[in-house]
Every structure is written in structure tokens, then in C-alpha cells.
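Q: I'm writing up a methods section and want to include an example of the input and output format. Could you take the sequence below and give the corresponding predicted C-alpha cells, formatted cleanly so I can copy it straight into the document?
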Amino acid sequence: MSDNSKIAVIIPFYQRTPGILAKTIRAVLDQTGVDHFQIIVVDDSSPIPARQELAEFLPMENGRIVIIEQPNKGAAGARNTGLDSLPADTEIVALVDSDDVWTTDHLSNAVYAISQGFDFYFSDFYQLGQTVTAFNRAGRINVAEHPLLPSSEHIREYAGDMLSQIIHGNILGTSVTVYAYSKMPDLRFRENFRHTGEEYLFWSDLALRSGKIAFSDRPECRYDVGVNIYSEPVWGQEKFLTILIDEVKYRKILLAEFPLNDAQKQFLNQRIQALRSDFVAGLLHRLLNNRQLDWAILKQYLQVDKAFALTLWPAAASILFKKLSGNTSPR
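A: Here is the clean output for your methods example:
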């Protein structure tokens, strides 16, 4: 791969607070060791317009920053719009959300790894409000089991089964995902999710199509404050229930469409059963606290998980019995 490889950074944008996108853009522009890349910002009908946010950058960047404005389609739809807009000679795509901040070496590390024949690169990162990195907080990866690349002190070849990693204990983040776009230009996010799930399926597709995967054991991104699906809803809220629907849906798709072994299938089915119980508990919480229930949400869940109808009432009875006996409650 030449030093002039065509690199695109795709940023879906939907924020309610000014100043957030500018911080992300500044971090992308501060990348060292990589001169040739384009930034594509997809304004997904953001309440704070991208053009307003980037007014200070656009005159100076000479077309390097491209803003695409569209009706709201969600994060997956915005990322796909960015992917659909890429020139045919694009070689590398790096993804970052509009409220996250890269370290200055993130792109150069990714380009180095891909130049060594790797198809997919990621790194450790700091999740929102955390002082311990994602790898260390979750304990889902032992970096010592993955060999260092020659002449690198922190970039390693991933030596495990990435699909199993995603299913059993995900370590990936969208804002540290970089891949060889030229080898899989048709790869896209699935847009039929409201909150979450499309990123797990994208990573799963990427894992299956990648020959070799590399990662940095150093954090190269900090997740910052912005629109975040998990920081807003609380137990029993309708948004909490719709997130559970997405959580079940993507696992159902993994079971139906991906080549899984028995252990992977068993784990996914156990997680789906646990999510069913959470959904029932959330419904009961609303009913017991005299909150209106949007029956359309229950209908959506039944469309995703048809077997749920057979377990709904037994699960509800079990939760109520435990509540009445003082053992637990649907919160």
C-alpha cells in the first residue's frame, strides 16, 4: 500500500449540544503520519447543524471535509450514506462517532497494520466517563496471548476467533474500527435497528470477511459526552424496552444467518432468554407503577421473538410470585 492510499473517515452526526462535533473533527485533523484522508460528515437531521458546527474548519480545509445532509435515518443509515458516497479508489475506511476523540496516532497505526496485510484494525479505548480502559475493565481479552507485530511495541495480531469474541465478550468499539474498504466495498450496516445491534452485526460480518485482524493494546480513543443510547433510558422506560427489542433482534439474526458452533448458539439462546425476562420485568414495572403501556412495543417484540408469546405469562407469573414472596421485584 502506498503512502498516498485513499483514506476516508466517516462521522454520522446527530447532536443536541453545540461544540461536540468540533472537538471530534479537531482530533481527526490532528492525526500524525497520515496526510491523505477525507472526512465525510453525514448530518442526520441533527438539531445542531453540521455546517454551523464546522464553520471555522470549512474555509481552511479546502474540500477535505465533506458534509452530506439527509433526512434522519439513524446512525446505521448515516454511516451507510457515507459509505455509499466514497470514491471507487478508496482503500481504507475509519469510523468515529461525532462525540468521540482519537489520539493523534490512531490513523497512522491503522494504516501501518493494513499495510502489513491486515484487513481490520481496532484498539483499546476509554468508555464514557471511565478512567480504566475497555480492555482492562471488562477483562475479556488477555493481550499477551496475541503476538506483537514486527517493529511495534503495542500493535498485535489478533489470534483468537473474533466472531466468538463478539458473541461471548465483545471488545470492539465503533469509533476505533478501521478496515480495508477496498477488499469489501459492499459491506454495510443494517438499518432496521432503532438503538443498537447494527454495529454488532457489522463487526460480525467484518470478522468473517477479514483474513487477518490487528489491534493496539493502547487506548486510541476516548468516548465523550453526547447522544448515547445507554446513558439516557432507565429501567421500565419505553426506550429501555425498545433497546431490549434490538438486543434480541440482532442475536436472532446471528443465530439465523451466521455460521455458528454449538457453544455460540447456546450462549446466544441463553442471552435471549435473559433478555426476555428483562422485558417481562420492564412491562410489569410499568403496569405496577400505573404507567401507560404502549402496546405497539409489545407487538414489536413479538414480531422479533415469536417464541416469547409462549413464555410471557409463565415468566410474568414467576416474577410476580418472587415479588410477593419478597425475593425480588421487577424494579
